[in-house]
Amino acid sequence: MPIATVRHLHLHDRPLVLIPYAMAGEANAPLAAMAGTAPDEPALLVVAQPRNRDQRFAFAARLAEILVPYVDSFTGVAEPIAVDRGRDVRHRFVDAPQLWVPNTGGVEFLRLFGRSTRFRRADGDHPVPASVPLLGRWLTFFAGTAEMPGSSLLLNAVQALSLHWATGQSSAEDAQLAAQLAWFDPPPGVSGVVAAREAERSPAAGPATDPDFDNQVLAPLMSSDEPDLGQLTGVLRERLMPAWRQMWRTLGLLRTLPAGARVAGRWDSDRDTFSAFVQHLADGGPPQPRRDGAVAAAARLHRLENAATRYAVQRAFDDPLVMAEYRLTGAAFAGRVTLAKADRIDDSGKRPVLRPRIMVATTEPVRVEPGAALTSPARPAQKAKVISITPTPDGCDVLLELSGGMGRKLVAEPGSVPAAGEHILLTTLSEAFRPGGSFPDPADTPWTHGGPPVSDTGPEVVE
Questions:
Q1: Are 16 and 200 spatial neighbours (Cβ–Cβ below 8 Å)?
Q2: Element (H, E) at 14
Q3: What is the pLDDT of residue 463?
Q4: For the segment 237-257, what is each residue's pLDDT rounded down to a tens digit?
Q5: Could you report the per-residue pLDDT of 222-238, keeping only the tens digit for each?
Q6: How far is it, in rounded angstroms, from Cα 74 to Cα 275?
Q7: By the 8 A CB rule, do 285 and 410 touch?
Q8: What is the dihedral of CA 334, 339, 342, 348, to 10 degrees?
Q9: pLDDT (0 to 100) of residue 456
Q10: What letters, b where the CB count within 10 A reaches 16 and e where it falls short, cover 338-359?
């Protein structure tokens, strides 16, 4: 069943689909990967001996030959963006790459594989191909953006489908892409639950392999020092092709939904993030640290919290099905404007200001108090202050005073004030700007959080 009327993520015309496969029992040991930007052109990378360090980094170099040129293809054309109220200009790329993996396990695999490769060196002891550390830095970058709510640089199919449709099974069962997709188009005469149960028998979309597959198929093939690479490749191709087709089917399903009105704005932010990281690499910036310091971690957490709040509000403003949840909890209500005084002037202050008032009749529960500030998704720049709430036989009448979004004169711009008879939705949610947090310099933090150690200045003890 649909739980969204619009698509809440950006869907690229040329995404890179990547399905990683890891060997069971080994920490982040790549066994195979299938990748490509077209449904009929998958590239299969296979590691004959995942425990072999040289073969692991050879796999990383081959993966870099796919991912790095794909990323570089978006760095050719940039556009100027006015900043500081037009007093300055910055540049960002007109497009950005987009990676797709099957599930959250795929995101975690990229994060761990990026950590294991971005600090490697092309010289010195145990050298690796020069493309390997660059691949690690890009994988770390994409895995980091996947944590940012609303970002579309790295997406996983299971989460994207769950954001827009609900199946008849639990979220844990939805984690298997084949079982989740079975609910969309079960065979004639077969229920979704039966189709999903059958789909659970299909090969997993990784990155973990099936224990039976490991024991019965992989173990015999990899028991010798020199496995038959051709046979192993054939087995893994057969294993990964169902997930490859499921990934492109997921993209097809998502394309049936129109993009939400605020998706483009979030993609602009993704392009900013991508452009900044490309510039960081061009300037010779260091690899991402193994772990953030206390100040950097606090600042990142603050950005994530702000992004999560902003994303939740934007989804609700874009989608009436999402907003319905807030209407059920009393954080929003809909009604009809019965009275409107668009030319009301408030002259009680130092200078007169335009403060129109409207009366909204609603049959829905209103769980806000007088003085609360409300917003209408149709006019997000305008605030509506609750003046009074009067019960009626069918619900209540809400008297609101409007400010903002009506121009700078004492006469409201046409259409900026809701007219009598207009249906309006009001909510406590707001897209108002949230300033960044104020954090100390790392050198000013206590030694327990990475700052300088505190010297012992206590009194001298005399014996």
A1: no
A2: none
A3: 38
A4: 999 999 999 999 999 999 999
A5: 777 677 888 999 999 99
A6: 10
A7: no
A8: -100
A9: 47
A10: eebebeeeeeeeeeeebbbbbb
* Sheet strands (E) in 38-94: 43-46, 78-83, 88-93
Q: How far is CA 289 from the centre of its chain?
A: 22
**Other CB atoms within 10 Å distance of the CB of residue 311:** 17
Residue 461 has pLDDT above 60, yes or no: no
Look-up of token digits 């294993």: 239
Q: Check pLDDT > 60 for residue 161.
A: yes
User: CA torsion sign, 418 to 420 to 425 to 426?
Assistant: positive
Amino acid (one-letter) located at 16: L
Going edge to edge, which strands form the sheet with 99-101? 43-46, 30-36, 16-22, 99-101, 154-156
Q: How many CB atoms lie within 10 A of CB 77?
A: 8
Contact 411, 343 (CB under 8 A): yes
Q: What is the bridge-based pairing of β-strands 357-362 and 395-403?
A: antiparallel
* Paired tokens of 395: 């619900």
Whether the per-residue pLDDT at 458 is higher than 50: the answer is no
Q: What is the mean pLDDT of residues 62-88?
A: 92
Q: What end-to-end distance do the CA atoms of the chain give, in Å? A: 81
- Measured torsion, CA atoms of residues 391, 393, 399, 400, in degrees rounded to the nearest 10: 100
Is pTM beyond 0.85? Reply is: yes
**Token pair in block for residue 350:** 């130092």
Q: Which residues pair with 35 in a beta bridge?
A: 18, 43
Maximum separation of any 2 CA atoms in the chain, in Å = 93
Cis, peptide link before residue 320, omega less than 30° from 0: no
Q: What is the pLDDT at residue 459?
A: 45
Q: Do 442 and 400 meet the contact criterion of CB atoms below 8 Å apart?
A: no
Contact 321, 4 (CB under 8 A): yes
Two structure tokens written together for 271: 């392009």
